[in-house]
Amino acid sequence: MNDRSAQRLAKLQEALASGGTLHLRDAAEMCGVSEMTVRRDLSTQPSPISLLGGRLVMASYPGVTPVYDLTEQQSSHYQVKQRLCQRAASFIEEGDTLFIDCGSTLIPLLGQLGRFRELTVVTYALNVANAVAVLPNVRLVLLGGLFYASSQSFGSDGMGAAIERLGINKALISAAGVDCERGVSCFHFHEVGPKQAAIATAMQRLLIVDASKFGVVRPAYFASLEDFDIVVTDDERAPGLLARHPLPTLNVSLA
């Protein structure tokens, strides 16, 4: 961490030490930098401060529950997500039927699907569907239900059964938390059913997750690490972290 970044984060941490929140605009003014610089500090350096819905909070402050904001997530670790998706794309084969999860992690993957002659994409995410709907080589299966704007995704009681009726070659799953002991988790409970159904149905299961998610537990548990064949990540420590994992054939693919 460079000295200026460290000084800014220390100043913000001191301002938040007594609890409460700090608007991103005010944080930038306090540090004498742009809002983008504050965002960069928070996304590239380890810090107990979280940016939630345009406000800074101490992640460890009692009573503070993280809130998923898709707009914030899309700008977080974007270059890393691009590299992860490039690596994940190397596992895709011509003619595959892919389950593509919701969220922001897998969005860079969608721009790489045009190089295939024929694919089928199954998703319950509106942002994924909008991106692949314009690709003439991709057959889209959009699973509907009640729309959840925060994650741009749908949920329904019958979605799991609908997924299980499909022949899915590869399930590309994202997560908000990965813990060796407490498993893989996300923010939203309506995502649990489709994620679990895709994992149960697919011939190959890939977890695509950046290093910031390791050691994190979110409210909605949906899988154990044993449920995946491949973990695609950018963290060089991942093989060591997962060495305690009871499934010795788990493939850790680094971006």
Structure description:
The chain has 255 residues and is of the alpha/beta class. A hairpin with a 3-residue loop joins strand 10 (177-179) and strand 11. Strands 6-5-4-9-12-14-15 form a seven-stranded parallel beta sheet, with helices on both faces. Mean pLDDT is 85; it is low at 61-65. Helix 2 packs across helix 3. It starts with a helix and ends with a strand. The protein has helices at residues 3-16, 24-31, 35-44, 70-75, 78-89, 107-110, 126-132, 159-164, 192-201, 238-241, and strands at residues 22-23, 49-52, 55-58, 97-100, 119-123, 138-142, 146-148, 153-155, 170-173, 177-179, 183-186, 204-208, 220-223, 230-233, 251-254.
In short:
By secondary structure, the protein is α/β, with parallel strands linked by helices. The protein is elongated, with a radius of gyration of 19 Å.
